[in-house]
Amino acid sequence: MHLDKDDSRGGVTVSDVILLGCRSINAAEARKDRAVKMGLLVPHPTLKEGKQNVYFLSNYIHVVDERLKRRLKEETPVSPNDIAFAFIKVLSSRKCAYHHISLRTDLKYPQEDYERLNEKIWIEKSSKNKTKIITFKLEDRRNCTLNISKNGTVMTSIECTTNQYKLHTYEGIAELFISCGQVLSILQQEACNRLNVVPHPIDWRIVQFDNDKTISISELKKEYPNINWHSKAALKMRDISAAFRIYVKEMPEQGSCLRVELNNSFKNSKTLSEKIKEIAKRDDAEYTPDDFLKDRLSERKDGTEDEDEDDGSS
To answer: What is the pLDDT of residue 178?
Structure first.
């Protein structure tokens, strides 16, 4: 007997034997019984197609069993904690990148230089506080917005969510200072080329930034194929702070990525020079998104243990 069966559905049934030349169900049953008696076909102990047994070639059934075990393992639900720990493991091996950076400095001659700002270029956001605003492009996927108040405060906001600064590298530090130099140049032009319109960028105060770790979903799938990284369930975390976010983001080179980011704001802000030294020294000088996740999971675990202890004592 020759069997030529598409393997996509599974084993051999009586209807398959009919397709191989038998003219009736009875003839197919007889041929199947004969093949079973000869040891060519073996009924699977658990698989059924409707009410029919499913048969496999006796020298092939072990392959089917292995596939079933593998499929069962792949379809086993992954707990939220397992997802979190897997994600933390991946995050811990990466360095942070930095975007949404806000810097503060002051005009050295506030009244004089504020009045010099070109009204055709600078937009007055509010007639009440008289803050003047301009937005311009620093480079590809990096924009800057300047806010200058009447009292001389200069706020610089650099947006670069898809072209972040990698401040743990010399190249990333250089890129940020080049961007600050571009901002300084614009301020100098607006002040009729006054060189000391504001302090040097190394003395500007850093008041806020977002540090993130962005990982390609295709890369995550290779390492953890059992987790659906696009799923909202995979991204959901209880007790998450407003400063922390997990979301899917399309990146120009990497495609779909999973990003975790932490918003950092500083009341006692340090100079850009001081902060860069801290970041460049080592990544763990900053509070990173994976640090946040670790702390939350630790708090949750401690809380659970406390609840269990209370339940046991009552």
So the answer is: 96
Taking alpha carbons only, the member of 264, 214, 262, 213 closest to residue 102 is 264
Q: What is the pLDDT of residues 228-272, one digit of tens each?
A: 777 655 555 544 555 788 888 999 988 999 998 989 998 889 999
Q: Is the pLDDT of residue 161 over 60?
A: yes
Report the DSSP beta bridge partners of residue 215: 258
Q: Identify any residues that bridge with 90 across adjacent strands, giving them in sequence order.
A: none
Q: Confirm if 11 and 55 have CB atoms less than 8 A apart.
A: yes
pTM: 0.66
User: pLDDT tens for residues 73-110?
Assistant: 555 555 555 677 777 788 888 889 999 999 999 999 99
The encoded tokens of residue 126 equal 């509010």
Query: What digits encode the pLDDT tens for the residues 8-60?
Result: 445 555 455 444 555 666 777 787 788 888 888 888 888 777 777 888 888 88
Listed in sequence order, the residues at least 6 apart from 23 whose beta carbon sits closer than 8 Å to its beta carbon are none
Instruction: Determine the residue type at 252.
Output: P
Structure tokens at 12: 């051999």
Residue among 82, 96, 70 nearest 224 (CA): 82
- 18, with CB counted inside 10 A (0-12, 13-18, 19+), is middle
H-helix or E-strand spanning residue 147: strand 142-148
Q: Please give the order of strands across the beta sheet that includes 153-159.
A: 123-124, 132-139, 142-148, 153-159, 97-106, 205-216, 255-271, 244-251
Under 8 Å between Cβ of 121 and 186: no
Q: How far apart are CA 21 and CA 54, in angstroms?
A: 19
Position 148: which residue type? I
State which amino acid sits at residue 16: D
Token pair belonging to 295: 């702390």
Q: Which of 138, 149, 160 is nearest to 105 (CA)?
A: 149
